């Protein structure tokens, strides 16, 4: 490999290595393909529910299995495997994900769907690590992270609109998963333009830095925040149906919410250096609480729209600040590599935990659970601040 891929000395904006702009963009796209499902779950899982392939409880299990698998896949690749041969790893993971999506399209039972989405999640997690491994090597990880979430959400928005308006009405949920498989195959061309090898970070020597109170409280705060969003996002269609909002309209709301997520990510990228991360996370937690309580109150169509759009904006606006939180907790940046896993575990546990509170066809406990998760996220931030201040005082 060229020295731009493998050099250990940092150059400019990089702690180690010096990837080109094209290589960075390629890695971010590969990671974005791994996270496409995050924006498409309400549309695709909602279609599976409407078509009678899964019940409400089974829908939660499908969503949870995939999110947990993504978290495991991203953590394993980032923490246990070397960051070498990234082009071939990207290609193999894309092919595996394409096959899992085709399997999902033709799955005949809920158990088969769960198995197919778990396999898809493992591949998706590996693809996410292709991007996050490179982001962790940047001196401006927060800004690159903002670009990453902007790219992935733009892709999610475009696909959600395509699926909700054209593909699913014509070909059902199966057609939606086939489209995802096609995207994976098309992305093989990009896989061979990522850096072949990433310069090594000394993460093996600093793994113990994750097992500290600051790192654990930071990651748990991230986990609880995404648990808030995961609960509402997975049940948005049945929740809307309870309030008299049809599935097509919810699909449009999802697409619009994804567009607003792009705005949130872009706004955070511009302002991340001007706003203290602690203030940003606390304020966003309060907004998450209020939005959840509104959804639990039986809102009309307009209020439902507004609450969903607000949630979309804050979801990715917070990401650069969560990256800064993790860097503050562990300056070796090992904890940063686990931020995607914390986010994805939150998205996974949110639906299954909320589903335990659902009473028959009443989905109101879902946003109520989300509100409690938002409060927990802010409380853990407060604990993090107290711990870090005490450590500085002792030092």
Provide a compact summary of the structure.
This protein has 395 residues and is mainly alpha-helical. It contains 17 helices and no strands. The chain has helices spanning 3-6, 21-34, 36-50, 56-79, 86-105, 110-135, 141-186, 188-191, 213-234, 236-242, 247-271, 277-296, 301-317, 319-329, 334-337, 339-355, 365-394.
Describe it.
With 395 residues, the protein is an all-alpha fold. It is 77% helix and 0% strand. It is built from 17 helices and no strands. Helix 2 packs across helix 7, helix 11 packs parallel to helix 13 (301-317) and helix 16 packs antiparallel against helix 17 (365-394). The N and C termini lie far apart (44 Å). 57% of the residues are buried. Residues 1-7 have low confidence and may be disordered. It is found in: Cell membrane. It is a multi-pass membrane protein. Residues 210-395 form the Major facilitator superfamily (MFS) profile domain. Pfam families: MFS_1. Keywords: Cell membrane, Membrane, Transmembrane, Transmembrane helix.
Number of beta strands: 0
pLDDT average, as an integer?
Answer: 85
How many angstroms separate the termini?
A: 44 Å
How many helix segments? Answer: 17
Going by helix content, strand content and strand pairing, the class is mainly alpha
Helix content: over 70%
Kindly estimate the percentage of residues that lie in beta strands according to DSSP.
under 5%
Enumerate the spans where pLDDT stays under 50 for 5 or more consecutive residues: 1-7
What is the global morphology? globular
Q: What Rg, in angstroms, do the CA atoms define? A: 20 Å
Largest sheet: none
Q: What is the H/E string?
A: HHHHHHHHHHHHHHHHH
Transmembrane segments: 27-49, 61-83, 90-108, 114-135, 147-168, 174-195, 207-236, 248-267, 279-298, 304-323, 335-357, 369-387
Keywords: Cell membrane, Membrane, Transmembrane, Transmembrane helix
Membrane topology: Multi-pass membrane protein
Domain Major facilitator superfamily (MFS) profile: 210-395
């Amino acid at each position: 490999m060229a020295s731009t891929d493998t050099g250990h000395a940092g150059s400019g904006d990089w702690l180690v290595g010096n990837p080109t702009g094209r290589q960075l963009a390629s890695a971010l796209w590969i990671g974005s393909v791994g996270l496409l499902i995050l924006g498409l779950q309400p549309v695709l899982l909602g279609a599976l529910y409407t078509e009678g392939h899964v019940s409400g409880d089974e829908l939660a299990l499908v969503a949870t299995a995939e999110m947990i698998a993504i978290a495991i896949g991203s953590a394993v690749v980032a923490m246990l495997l070397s960051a070498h041969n990234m082009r071939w790893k990207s290609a193999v993971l894309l092919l595996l994900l394409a096959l899992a999506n085709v399997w999902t399209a033709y799955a005949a039972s809920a158990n088969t769907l769960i198995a197919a989405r778990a396999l898809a999640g493992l591949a998706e997690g590996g693809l996410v690590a292709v991007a996050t491994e490179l982001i962790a090597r940047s001196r401006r990880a927060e800004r690159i992270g903002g670009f990453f979430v902007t790219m992935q959400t733009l892709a999610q928005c475009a696909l959600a609109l395509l699926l909700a308006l054209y593909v699913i009405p014509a070909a059902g949920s199966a057609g939606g998963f086939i489209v995802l498989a096609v995207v994976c195959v098309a992305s093989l061309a990009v896989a061979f333009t990522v850096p072949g090898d990433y310069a090594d970070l000394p993460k093996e020597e600093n793994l113990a830095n994750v097992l500290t109170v600051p790192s654990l409280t930071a990651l748990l705060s991230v986990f609880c925040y995404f648990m808030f969003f995961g609960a509402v996002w997975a049940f948005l269609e049945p929740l809307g149906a309870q309030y008299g909002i049809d599935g097509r309209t919810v699909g449009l709301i999802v697409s619009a919410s994804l567009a607003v997520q792009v705005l949130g990510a872009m706004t955070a990228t511009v302002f991340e250096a001007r706003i203290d991360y602690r203030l940003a996370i606390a304020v966003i937690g309060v907004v998450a609480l209020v939005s959840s309580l509104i959804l639990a109150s039986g809102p009309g169509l307009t209020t439902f729209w507004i609450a969903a759009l607000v949630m979309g904006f804050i979801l990715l606006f917070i990401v650069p600040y969560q990256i800064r939180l993790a860097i503050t907790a562990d300056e070796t940046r090992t904890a940063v590599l686990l931020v995607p896993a914390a986010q994805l575990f939150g998205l996974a546990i949110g639906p299954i935990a909320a589903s335990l509170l659902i009473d028959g066809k009443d989905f109101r406990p879902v946003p109520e659970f989300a509100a409690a998760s938002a409060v927990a996220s802010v409380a853990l931030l407060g604990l993090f601040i107290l711990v870090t201040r005490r450590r500085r005082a002792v030092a």
